[in-house]
Amino acid sequence: MAFLIEADRLKTVLRASTLADGSRRENSGEHSWHLALYAMVLADQAAPGVDIGRVIRMLILHDLVEIDVGDVPIHSGDGTAHASAAVQAAEAAAAARIFGLLPPDQGAELLALWQEFEAAETPDAIFAKALDRVQPVMQNLASGGGTWVTYGVTSEQLDSRVGTRVARGAPALWDWVRARTRAFFDDRPER
User: Fold this and answer.
1) I need a surface site. Which of 34, 49, 89, 107 has the fewest CB within 10 A?
2) pLDDT tens digits for range 139-184
3) Nearest-angstrom CA–CA distance, 95 and 166
4) pLDDT single digits (tens) 29-65
5) What H or E segment, with its residue span, contains residue 17?
6) Checking phi first, is residue 3 left (phi over 0); if not, alpha (psi -120 to 50) or beta?
């Protein structure tokens, strides 16, 4: 029960991304729920053999570390903050603390699932990571640019920071999404 009460705090973590209507920033609990829905609806985009149930479990768990660390947007720090050693260490410590609230066997199982998502080396994790990267793109498209405007994101940065992950896990999905982003970036000067 302590873990479940602690997990409720994810609803208080505001992300950089807004809701699709641009009315407010989404919270990390909403993001995790939305990603689980993405996995259910876009399961046909996964590689053969991907276990959508495992993908959904990863997506529900993947941002729990933000309870301690907060949201670190992919484009913050000119793209360097998200994967920095400091952020990775803080997230690992948060994962150990949060999953440590569970009985040892269950905590170890969920921690391993979180670590698998972070490593993004298995087919399940590669697809989960692709969905985690594509959902904010869809939010930005729907809201007129969202965090791309805030962070001055260029077309090349979108491809390198987001597109490579989405294309690796869901190539046809990336082709479809990227075609829709071109109009936005073609109308903006690159920095």
Assistant:
1) 49
2) 999 998 888 888 888 899 899 889 999 999 999 999 999 999 988 8
3) 24
4) 999 999 999 999 999 999 999 999 999 999 999 999 9
5) strand 14-18
6) alpha
